[in-house]
């Protein structure tokens, strides 16, 4: 009896081993790669674009299709290149759906995807398929419960009216992202009005125009041809920023909007990102800023943005505009006290900002320098000319001697409690500002 039991156990063990070996052998016996041409043809028909797939393979635990070297090429109206290239993708399939001859992807992992989004001046984006309908019949994959992106890159740009490639206006690198309920057909269909995915996103570097941010963390949502970055936290030029970023891709011109609060930003590093901005100012900046506008099909896609905010810069220098040195030339006073410090330095600059038509306007500027206080207003062009037009009243905070006060009065200045003040104007350009005294009638 014991012998029969032992023999039965051995038989069961051998059968289990054979079954296990068979299961492990199935992926090699089922050569899914032979179906690659049919799959390419099918996906090309649904996307309306050329598709490449390097290799297909199958695993059973879990049941997954593995895709190597996947790419979707730009449609003919766009320059040659790829909308997306993915080094490796894993799609976990629903076994019960397979038994009913249906393909349902439970989760999708994309490794090293590189995405290039391009907008044509007539409106369409390169990833769109105007023939696609937001239904499972058009592309029977349904909504994917989970999509994970590892080490991704995203680059967005416009074509110029000549259909030549325009400059990049947005890019993100080393992206890691986890999305839920992703609707692929909704993303490629211009008529879709669905929520096409939401989750969290991280990126080691993100750029909007000339402004860079690093180590970004945010929540992320795709919906109605719109992209939302919320609860954004990032490092920006040695400081930090929090806020939100929004893109609308539904119009002929894409548009964006951002609201941010920031602190500890190095002004020198920030300005170095802009043409003619290097070595123009130092200090640490804090404040808030709201920007937005169309992303135009021109060589300067962000030229139409508008915005407003308030910034404060502390403990810095403006080498090209030496406040105290300019005041000395204008009034010839000698008893400067603290103004004998670095003539380019200041304790604090606080100002409001309004950006429109490539011009930054400030209605109230407060500058606390070494021995100099300034209240002013004005504007600067940021269209490349960098023209300055500022005016205000400067006061020497240290009481001056009798002869200095007398000379100042004859020069059109006001003297109160021994302190000299007079109106001024700053013209010229950011690189070569011209500081001049404004004549006024009357003195005290």
Q: Any key phrases for this structure?
A:
444 residues; 20-stranded mixed beta sheet; 20 strands
Notes on the protein architecture:
The chain is α+β, with helices and mostly antiparallel strands. The chain folds into two domains: 29-253, no CATH class; 318-437, no CATH class. 16% of the residues lie in helices and 52% in strands. The chain contains seven helices and 20 strands. It has helices at residues 2-29, 36-47, 95-99, 184-188, 267-271, 323-331, 402-410; strands at 51-60, 63-73, 82-93, 105-119, 143-159, 165-183, 195-208, 211-223, 226-236, 239-248, 254-266, 284-295, 306-317, 345-356, 359-369, 372-381, 388-396, 414-416, 419-428, 433-437. It has a 20-stranded mixed beta sheet that branches. A hairpin with a 2-residue loop joins strand 14 and strand 15. The longest helix is centred in the N-terminal third of the chain and has 28 residues, at 2-29. The chain is elongated. The protein starts with a helix and ends in a 7-residue tail after the last strand. Mean pLDDT is 81; it is low at 7-29 and 133-139.
């Amino acid at each position: 009896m014991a012998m029969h039991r032992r023999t039965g156990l051995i038989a069961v063990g051998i059968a289990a081993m054979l079954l296990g070996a068979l299961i492990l052998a199935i992926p090699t016996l089922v050569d899914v790669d032979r179906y690659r041409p049919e799959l390419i043809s099918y996906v090309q028909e649904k996307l309306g674009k050329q598709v490449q797939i390097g290799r297909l393979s199958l695993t059973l635990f879990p049941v997954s299709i593995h895709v190597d070297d996947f790419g979707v090429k730009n449609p003919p109206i766009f320059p040659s290149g790829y909308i997306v290239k993915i080094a490796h993708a894993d799609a976990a399939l629903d076994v019960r759906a397979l038994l009913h001859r249906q393909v349902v992807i439970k989760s999708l992992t994309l490794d090293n995807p590189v995405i290039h989004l391009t907008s044509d001046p007539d409106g369409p984006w390169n990833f769109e398929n105007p023939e696609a309908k937001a239904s499972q019949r058009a592309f029977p994959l349904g909504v994917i419960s989970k999509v994970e992106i590892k080490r991704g890159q995203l680059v967005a740009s416009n074509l110029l009216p000549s259909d030549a490639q325009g400059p990049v206006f947005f890019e993100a690198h080393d992206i890691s992202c986890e999305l839920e309920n992703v609707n692929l057909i909704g993303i490629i269909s211009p008529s879709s009005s669905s929520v096409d995915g939401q989750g969290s996103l991280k990126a080691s570097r993100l750029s909007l125009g000339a402004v860079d941010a690093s180590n970004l963390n945010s929540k992320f949502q795709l919906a109605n041809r719109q992209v939302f970055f919320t609860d954004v936290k990032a490092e920006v030029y040695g400081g930090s920023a929090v806020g939100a970023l929004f893109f609308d891709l539904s119009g002929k011109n894409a548009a964006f909007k951002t609201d941010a609060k920031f602190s500890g930003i190095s002004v020198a590093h920030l300005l170095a990102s802009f043409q003619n901005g290097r070595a123009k100012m130092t200090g640490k900046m804090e404040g808030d800023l709201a920007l937005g506008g169309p992303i135009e099909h021109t060589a300067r896609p962000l030229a139409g943005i508008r915005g407003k905010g308030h910034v404060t810069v502390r403990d810095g220098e403006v080498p090209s505009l030496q406040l105290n040195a300019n005041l000395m030339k204008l009034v010839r006073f000698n008893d400067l006290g603290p103004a004998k410090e670095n003539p380019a330095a200041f304790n604090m600059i606080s100002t409001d900002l309004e950006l429109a038509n490539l011009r930054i306007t400030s209605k109230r500027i407060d500058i606390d320098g070494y021995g100099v206080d300034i209240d002013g207003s004005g504007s600067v062009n940021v269209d490349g000319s960098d023209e300055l037009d500022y005016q205000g009243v400067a006061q020497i905070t240290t009481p001056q001697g009798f002869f200095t006060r007398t000379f100042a009065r004859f020069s059109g200045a006001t003297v109160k409690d021994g302190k000299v003040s007079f109106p001024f104007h700053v013209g010229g350009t950011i690189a070569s500002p011209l500081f001049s005294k404004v004549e006024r009638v009357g003195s005290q």
